[in-house]
From TrEMBL:
<keyword id="KW-1003">Cell membrane</keyword>
<feature type="site" description="Transition state stabilizer">
    <location>
        <position position="414"/>
    </location>
</feature>
<dbReference type="InterPro" id="IPR027268">
    <property type="entry name" value="Peptidase_M4/M1_CTD_sf"/>
</dbReference>
<dbReference type="InterPro" id="IPR042097">
    <property type="entry name" value="Aminopeptidase_N-like_N_sf"/>
</dbReference>
<feature type="active site" description="Proton acceptor">
    <location>
        <position position="332"/>
    </location>
</feature>
<keyword id="KW-0812">Transmembrane</keyword>
<keyword id="KW-0449">Lipoprotein</keyword>
<keyword id="KW-0732">Signal</keyword>
<keyword id="KW-0325">Glycoprotein</keyword>
<keyword id="KW-0378">Hydrolase</keyword>
<dbReference type="Pfam" id="PF17900">
    <property type="entry name" value="Peptidase_M1_N"/>
</dbReference>
<keyword id="KW-0336">GPI-anchor</keyword>
<comment type="similarity">
    <text>Belongs to the peptidase M1 family.</text>
</comment>
<dbReference type="GO" id="GO:0043171">
    <property type="term" value="P:peptide catabolic process"/>
</dbReference>
<dbReference type="GO" id="GO:0005615">
    <property type="term" value="C:extracellular space"/>
</dbReference>
<dbReference type="InterPro" id="IPR034016">
    <property type="entry name" value="M1_APN-typ"/>
</dbReference>
<dbReference type="Pfam" id="PF11838">
    <property type="entry name" value="ERAP1_C"/>
</dbReference>
Length: 902
């Protein structure tokens, strides 16, 4: 039925709460967008109305099939239907009978009297729409920054991934419906605009308004459309590159590093991929962190970052900051090919963009920083951490990630998928992998793909080279689909038969819980090394065996002599467990032989796997502890890092043991060689990983009572106290302050307290944390009383300050318990603090003390706290505390030397 009121001005207000693009219903595919001409006007200079924007849009469409309606996306927009038209390419106008909003699906459905004809072109014009720039940091939104002089300035910025372009303009907001864009921005005279394309022209519209028109873009999805209206400045232009930021940041040189590394990175990626970057420019923009929580966004030619991920200051930036800026740029630039040039068909295949770009975040950055050993960092920070989430029973497969679970998106689409890509690089060989990626991009540029398209590209190169043998005569797709379509990852168990000289490899899904069964079978590339092999080549990471069944048995060519090691360079995404004899042989060799003949990543793998298995009850604790003894010989960051990660669990288990001092001595002794090699102070000869290693080693040594470490911290602190000069890496600064407070006197502590409560003082945050580190019980009691008297303890942030005491001070839990017995704190806050304290208690005596406290003030939170301590006591038993203590009795007690610990 024809809508008789259509001649009237009809406004449709589209507003609906956020629904992830993963869950949105797909748009009908009866039409295909070819080109958008978008005009947007902002009102940033109008104080009372600065959050509004208005615009118009013309969308050139191809009718794929006959249809009587056009369906596109819109949300939170007011659309004036009087200016909505559909015109055939021959100039004839189609009559619009009705415009309907489907709020649940976020569809704007335009019904027509006459059908669209298949294979014909039409222009859909929406001549007037408007919206509100909200403060939710998505869509087209308002952000602010404050100058050094305290003046607040407005900027308007976009962030459309995954489904928020529809909040800025009506569009086909689906990654498979790519198009070209011509963008016009109308802005006040005292602002400027940038977008995906180069600026073509600026037109004076009068009344202090100007319209900037930008070059037509390449074919691209809506989620990488971007524009910015601001009064930012930019760095000098180098080749295709500029960096935009707050004027003060540009003047202070905080974006100089980002500019220089961007030039290097884009060129390096072009050379590796073998396809030129197709845009004519590459702008980067530093958005105030408060207004850009996503970290970075790969908009084509206009990459946006949280300013903390782009700023580098010579005075305050740490080595971690410099690495983050370098790798974030590599990640977003990789997207210009993976995601922008070639786009996934559906959001569930997001990993084709994010997984590959996370791989290049490290691999691509290593092209420009080859001495940083970034792929070693990848194994520690991506692969080994991905195991943690993926070993739970609520993980999902790479091809089945739902946008409703952002945690899964982060761990699976980004991290796990990147690890699988690294694995493919190694079993395919580096050359086939690179050529396969090139073919994938060349064949599918400006199009959409599914995983099978990537597999097919790799397969073509494998076939061209006649290299089926490297895959065990399996297809690329059959291998990769097991990794991308199955949840979790495998545990490979090696059982050597020392009598008949065979070894059996078996696989099962790895769970933290031993009792869960799974029928998953992966195609696992097995590379291995024998101790007795004349050429232990850890660099050849092709598969020696493909484990494609639940269990397979092979002949042991060295008759079960020496050790046997699986998964060279930990290139495969799986953990490896051995029989106890082989574990013992590996430990003995590391402790007595040429330990560094085992590749550094495999030394890290052994430490990480063994401690993980012991923690989950899969092997006795003497296995990782025997392995760990070799660390007294180790100075490399890579194997030390997973050991440092294992220490908090061990410390918690041993903190209530009579052997705690023995345990402390053992850990300090293990790391003493690394500490002596690294020193407390930075050296010009430090490698990139030496700097990270120093942070780890100093953290553990000082915390567990190494005298020289603590004295060095106090000495440097007092020098800063006298001179105001502190020249250490900012990451080490926090450790320095904390450990100085551990042994400093009341005068030192008061000095820090006065600095910490002054929020404008340098190092404010680090100093505030350091106050909680003191091991002087009197000072700690004074601190708690001051927090209570100032109402900080019961105010916003008070809980965090209390938890700092529990976390950073070795006497914190004891002092906190005494304080809570006597302090006059409102019941709700008191119960909450007791609840937090309970997490640090794990003995029967501590449980009784908590129950006494509970008897004086009844609150449900107290009951939960008691349950937590009971759970911790059980956890201690499940963590094999007795086995750990037995090992320390047998090995460490007789080697005790107390001279260098407190």
């Amino acid at each position: 039925m024809e809508n008789q009121n259509l001649s009237l001005i009809l406004f449709i207000v589209l507003s609906y709460s956020f629904i992830s693009a993963f869950a949105n219903s797909s748009l009908p595919k009866n039409v295909k967008p070819i080109r958008y001409t978008l005009t947007v006007e902002t009102n940033l200079d109008v104080k009372e109305n600065c959050t509004t924007f208005n615009g118009s849009i013309i969308i050139e469409l191809l009718s794929v099939q006959a249809a009587s309606n056009i369906t596109l996306n819109a949300r939170n927009l007011t659309i004036n239907n009087e200016f909505l038209t559909v015109i055939h390419s021959d100039g004839s106008k189609l009559k619009v009978t009705n415009v309907k909003l489907d709020e649940e699906k976020q569809f704007l459905i335009i019904h027509l009297k006459d059908e669209l004809l298949a294979d014909e072109y039409y222009n859909l014009t929406i001549g007037e729409f408007s919206g509100i720039m909200t403060n939710d940091n998505v869509g087209f939104y308002l952000a602010k920054y404050t100058t050094k002089d305290g003046e607040e300035r407005n900027i308007a910025v976009t962030d459309f991934e995954s489904s928020d372009a529809r909040k800025a303009f009506p569009c086909f907001d689906d990654p498979s419906m790519k198009a070209k864009f011509i963008i016009n921005i109308i802005r006040p005279a005292n602002y400027f605009a940038i977008s995906n394309g180069e600026l073509v022209s600026t037109e004076d519209l009068g009344n202090g308004r100007f319209m900037d028109t930008f070059n037509e873009t390449m074919i691209m999805p809506t989620y990488v459309v971007a524009y910015l209206v601001s009064d930012f400045k930019h760095t000098q232009k180098i080749e295709r590159h500029r960096v935009f930021a707050q004027p003060d940041a540009i003047d202070d040189g905080k974006l100089d590093y980002a500019l220089s590394v961007a030039v290097e990175t884009l060129q390096a990626l072009e050379e590796y991929i073998g396809l030129n970057y197709t845009n004519t420019k590459m702008d980067q923009v530093a958005i105030p962190e408060k207004y850009f929580v996503e970290g970075a966004m790969e908009n084509w030619g206009l990459v946006t970052f949280s300013d903390g991920n782009l700023h580098i200051s010579n005075d305050t930036s740490s080595i971690e900051d410099i690495e983050r800026v370098t790798t974030y740029i590599a990640h977003e630039f990789a997207h210009q090919w993976f995601g922008n040039l070639v786009t996934f068909k559906e959001w569930r295949y997001l990993w084709l963009a994010e997984g590959i770009s996370t791989f290049f975040q490290f691999y691509g950055a290593s092209f420009v920083r080859p001495t940083w050993r970034l792929m070693d960092r990848f194994v520690l920070t991506i692969l080994q951490e991905a195991f943690e989430f993926d070993s739970t029973n609520y993980t999902v497969s790479i091809n089945d990630v739902s946008g409703d679970d952002r945690y899964a998106v982060w761990w699976i689409s980004y991290r796990k998928a990147s690890v699988v890509m690294r694995m493919a690089q190694h079993f395919l060989t580096f050359d086939i992998f690179r050529r396969g990626l090139h073919l994938y991009l060349e064949k599918n540029k400006y199009q959409n793909t599914e995983p099978k398209d990537l597999y097919a590209a790799f397969q073509v190169i494998v076939d061209q080279d006649g290299a089926d043998d490297i895959l065990g005569n399996n297809s690329v797709e059959s291998i990769m689909e097991t990794w991308n379509s199955l949840e979790g990852f495998p545990l490979v168990t090696v059982e050597r038969n020392y009598e008949n000289h065979t070894f059996t490899l078996s696989q099962k899904r790895y769970f933290e819980d031993n009792d869960i069964e799974s029928g998953n079978i992966w195609y696992i590339p097995i590379s291995y090394v024998y101790q007795l092999h004349s050429n232990n080549n850890f660099s050849d990471t092709r598969a020696d065996i493909w484990l494609t069944k639940k269990s397979m048995t092979f002949v042991d060519q060295f008759k079960a002599k020496g050790w046997f090691l699986i998964n060279k360079q930990q290139t495969g995404y799986y953990r490896v467990n051995y029989d106890l004899v082989n574990w013992d042989r590996l430990a003995s060799f590391l402790n007595q032989g040429d330990y560094d003949s085992i590749y550094v990543l495999n030394r890290a793998q052994l430490i990480d796997d063994a401690f993980c298995f012991a923690r989950h009850g899969k092997i006795p604790y003497h296995v990782p502890l025997n392995l760990s003894k070799y660390l007294v010989r180790e100075t490399d960051y890579v194997p030390i890092a997973p050991f440092v990660d294992a220490i908090p669990h061990l410390t918690f288990v041993m903190s209530s043991s009579k052997l705690y001092d023995v345990y402390r001595h053992y850990i300090i002794n293990l790391l003493s060689t690394a500490y002596d090699y690294l020193g407390f102070d930075e050296k010009p000869s430090d490698s990139h990983l030496d700097k990270f290693n120093r942070i780890n080693v100093v953290k553990v040594m000082c915390r567990l009572g190494h005298l020289e470490c603590r004295n060095n911290a106090l000495k440097k602190f007092r020098e800063w106290k006298e001179t105001g000069i502190l020249s250490v890496d900012p990451l080490l600064k926090r450790l320095l302050f904390c450990n100085a407070m551990r042994i400093g006197d009341m005068d030192d502590w008061e000095f820090v307290y006065k600095k910490a409560i002054n929020k404008s003082s340098t190092h404010h945050t680090a100093l505030h944390s350091a106050l909680a580190c003191t091991e002087n019980e009197f000072i700690l009691k004074q601190y708690l009383n001051r927090l209570l008297n100032s109402t900080l303890l019961i105010g916003k942030g008070g809980r965090a300050l209390f938890n700092n005491i529990l976390l950073y001070s070795n006497v914190g839990p004891k002092v906190a318990l005494d304080f809570l017995r006597n302090a006059s704190i409102p019941e709700k806050q008191h119960a909450t603090l007791v609840y937090d304290l309970s997490g640090r208690f794990a003995t029967e005596e501590q449980l009784r003390e908590l129950q006494v406290l509970n008897s004086t003030v009844r609150h449900k939170v107290f009951e939960n706290a008691v349950n937590i301590v009971s759970g911790n006591i059980k956890f201690m038993k499940d963590s094999y505390k007795e086995d750990i203590e037995k090992w320390f009795y047998e090995y460490v007690a007789e080697n005790m030397e107390d001279s260098n610990i407190v």
